[in-house]
Design a protein that fits this description.
The chain is of the alpha+beta class and 266 residues long. It has 3 domains: 47 residues; 77 residues, Protein of unknown function (DUF541), domain 1 (Translation Initiation Factor IF3), CATH 3.30.110.170; 118 residues, Alpha-Beta Plaits (2-Layer Sandwich). Helix content is 40%, strand content 33%. The strands form 2 sheets. Strands 2, 3, 4, 5, 6 and 8 form a 6-stranded antiparallel beta sheet that branches. Strands 1-9-7 form a 3-stranded antiparallel beta sheet. Helix 2 packs antiparallel against helix 3. It is elongated and about 95 Å long.
């Protein structure tokens, strides 16, 4: 047998194998497409109509915590002198707060700094030329130092915040920040937990009414999205120099939880 005949037989064999593979692939592909189409049909047949609703729940919240920041500022010829005077005055303020019933755990340093005080001087007589000579330039001279120390007091809202302010000022506090009433983390979580169930119940009630209007009923939940609750902070400003006792009242704040829900109907 010649080489030419042998090549022809090999070519025919390879062509036959490729043809068989192509036919098999076509059959398998057709079966896969049929199976996918059947699966899609089954999925479509099991899908249920849906109804999308919003739900909300609100509650009036009384803040359970209040914080007040009090501070003292002192001057000295040196940094050490200013810091020492500041420490003495702040200790008197802290002692007054402790006597009022505030514990060390309820007080924390929020700011402390010691910095120089500058005074700018200009030469009285100077030649008016440009650029001016160095001896004609204004000079900043250190004339002393200032020490500043602030302490934040955080107590229960039932505590008389006004008495904290008055005691601090009487003991020598030179500046007082306003009172901030807020809801503690523990109470925030309790409120969230209760509002979530109420908001979802509100959404479900609206979905039930919608389903009933089209002669259907809610049979499940497809999706649910919760919006977090924002807890406002109540701020009360005042004049630290007030001679009369300082009245500080927390007031109430309303918080709301909202949800978006998609329910299946059947």
């Amino acid at each position: 047998m010649s080489d030419q005949n042998m090549n022809r037989r090999n070519f025919a064999l390879i062509a036959g194998i490729l043809a068989i593979g192509l036919v098999a692939a076509t059959i398998v592909g057709g079966q896969s497409m049929a199976a996918a189409a059947q699966q899609q049909q089954e999925q479509n047949s099991t899908e249920h109509p849906t109804v999308s609703t919003n739900g909300s729940a609100s509650v009036d919240v009384q803040p359970d915590k209040v914080s007040v920041t009090v501070g003292v500022e002192t001057d000295g010829k040196t940094a050490a002198e200013a810091a020492a005077a500041n420490a003495d005055l702040m200790e008197k303020v802290l002692a007054a707060l402790r006597e009022l019933g505030v514990t060390d755990e309820q007080m924390s340093t929020s700011n402390y700094s010691v910095y120089p005080i500058y005074n700018t001087t200009k030469p009285e007589v100077c030649i008016m030329i440009y650029p001016p000579p160095p001896e004609c330039l204004p000079r900043d001279e250190i004339v002393g130092y200032k020490a500043s120390n602030s302490v934040t007091v955080t107590v229960d809202a039932s505590f008389d915040a006004g008495s904290v302010i008055d005691a601090a000022v009487e003991a020598g506090a030179t500046n007082v920040n306003g009172a901030y009433f807020f809801v503690s983390q523990e109470k925030q979580q309790e409120i969230r937990d209760s509002l979530i169930s109420q908001a979802i119940a509100n959404a479900r009630s609206r979905a039930d009414k919608a389903a009933e209007a089209v002669d259907m009923e809610v049979i499940g939940v497809k999706s649910l999205s919760l919006n977090d609750v924002y807890f406002p902070v109540f701020y009360r400003d005042f004049a630290a120099e007030a001679a009369s006792p300082t009245p500080i009242l927390p007031g109430q704040q309303q918080v709301t939880m909202t949800v978006q829900a998609v329910f299946n109907m059947g």
